[in-house]
Design a protein that fits this description.
The chain has 8 helices and 5 strands; from the N terminus they run H-H-H-E-H-E-H-E-E-E-H-H-H. It is an alpha+beta fold. Strands 1-2-5-4-3 form a 5-stranded mixed sheet, sandwiched between helices. Strand 3 and strand 4 form a beta hairpin.
Length: 259
Amino acid sequence: MVMRGAGNRRRGGMRMGGFRSFVPHVPFDLVLCEPQNVFPRCRPVPDETAFTQALLKRNQDISPTAQEQASVLALMQKVNQMMDNLIVAPASFEACQIEEIRQVGSHKKGTMIVGHNVADIVAILKTLPTKEAICALSTKILEDMRACDPNEVLTMALNNGGFEISSADATVKVLISTIIPNFKKLEPDLHLDAKVMQGHLTAIRHARWFEETAFHSSIKVLIRLLRDLRNRFDGFRPLSPWIIDLLVERFLLVFVTEL
C-alpha cells in the first residue's frame, strides 16, 4: 500500500527541492514613523509653564552670585599668572618644571553651584612629580602671590592630588599631573599617585569636549539642576560630573532633535 504524497513531501509540508519565500519583518521605528501621526494624542498638551518656571527659579537660586563668580575668577587669574611666570622665567626655582596649565572643572564649564566657589587648574609637569617638588611649588606660588598683594589673606593646603590656595571667599585647586613618558618612571613612595594624575589628564579632555560640544545654555542649566539633585538625594550619588554632562548633552542634542 502506497501512501499518497509520502514521497514528494518533507516535514512541515514543504515539497522536496522547493524553498519557502522569505518575508522580511521590518522592525517598528518610533522615530521614522512620526509618533505625532501614528499615535495621536488623546488629551491636549498639558500646560507646563509653572513647572518650567519652577526649574528656572531653582536654577537661579543655586547659581553663584556675580560677586562670588568675580572672586573666583580673580583668584584663579592670580594663580594662573604666577604659574605662567614659572613657565616663562623659572629663575632660581629648580624644584620642578611646568609644561603647561589648563583650566578644568565647573568654573571652566560655567556650571558652578552656590556655596562651591572653587576653580580647578591642571598643572602638567615636565619633571617627575615628587611630593617634595609639589610642596616647594605650592610654597613658591603662595609667596609670589603674597608679594604682589600683602594685604590679601591667603592660605595653602596640600592634598593627595596637588594643592589648593584659598582666599576669604574663593578657592583654586591646582591638580598636578605629568607628561606621558614620566608615568613609567613613577614610584609610589616618592611620587603622586599615577591614577590620580591620569584622572587629571582626563579632566582636560572632559573640559575640551564640553567646550566643543556642550556649550548651549540649556545644557548648563540642566547640569546645574542635576548636580543639585545629586547633592540632595543619596540615590543620585553615583552620578559623576562626566556622567551628568554626557546624559544632559545626549538628551538635549540628540533625543529632542530627533523627536
